[in-house]
Amino acid sequence: MPMIIPPTLTEEDGALTKACEDALVAIFERYDADKDGALSNSELDAFAKDTNGDVFDEDARAEITEFLDLDNKGQLTLKGFLQMYNLQTSSEPGETWKDLQKHGYDTNLKLVASRNEDRDEKPKPKHP
Hints:
By secondary structure, the chain is mostly helical. 52% of the residues lie in helices and 3% in strands. Keywords: Calcium, Membrane, Metal-binding, Repeat.
């Protein structure tokens, strides 16, 4: 069976590819429950739990606050979210692939399943 090699997530200049950025924007928007353009602590916690199984620890939160773009309330903006993934992808692209797959993306960066949609799915009534 041939080995499947996923596409690269970054351009030659280190920027995220459009397909990767589009997937990350969609993930960010899924967790931005109040649609204010930033992830509050509870929204960021929900994202971290779905991605890593637990919330970010104090050190990770400190790094987010110190190095990434935040709004005037200290919440992670879309720009900051993309910065976070650009940093991760440049050093550990495999980790970004794991995250994308946890959020329902295949190796072609196509959404095939959504964690939030699965969680929010209501059982369909059975008709006799």
